[in-house]
Amino acid sequence: MTRAKEILKWVYGVLFTLAGSNHFVHTDFYVNIMPAYLPWHEALVYVSGVLEVGLGLLLLCRRFERLAAWGMIALIIAVTPANLQMAIHPELYPEYSPFMLWSRLVFQGVLIAWAYWYTRPRRCAMTHSAY
User: Which of 21, 22, 71, 99 has the fewest CB atoms nearer than 10 Å to its CB?
Assistant: First the structure.
């Protein structure tokens, strides 16, 4: 793994962990963006927070980085309804511009691509031994 990729993995893992921790600090915000058709809003916020913290930390463990990256992709897809809820109903979130609300959805694509980068098997360093 290149040095830049390794550094970016740590950045992503830490950011994902901090984002998950935020679910416990600002629970009401996350509950308020949940679509009405989903049950158990508060429980889902806590579960997604635990998953974000856990997956962010697992990404930092070489042994589990691929599993964590796939889990991150699945979780980002799973929380899309909440971000879509905000974008489709900007009148419910007047403190945010519609552009920012739609940008969150685009950013999810960036996060998925970033996580996908860590699903690829590591390449072993080539040795230059003579046969």
Answer: 99
Place of tokens 């550094």: 7
Q: pTM here?
A: 0.86
Within 10 angstroms of residue 129's Cβ, the number of other Cβ atoms is 5
Q: What is the pLDDT of residues 22-54, one digit of tens each?
A: 999 999 999 999 999 999 999 999 999 999 999
Closest CA to 114 of 25, 8, 38: 8
Report angle CA 104, 105, 108 to the nearest 5 degrees.
90
Integer Cα distance of 16 and 13 in angstroms: 5
Cβ-contact 39, 26 below 8 angstroms:
no
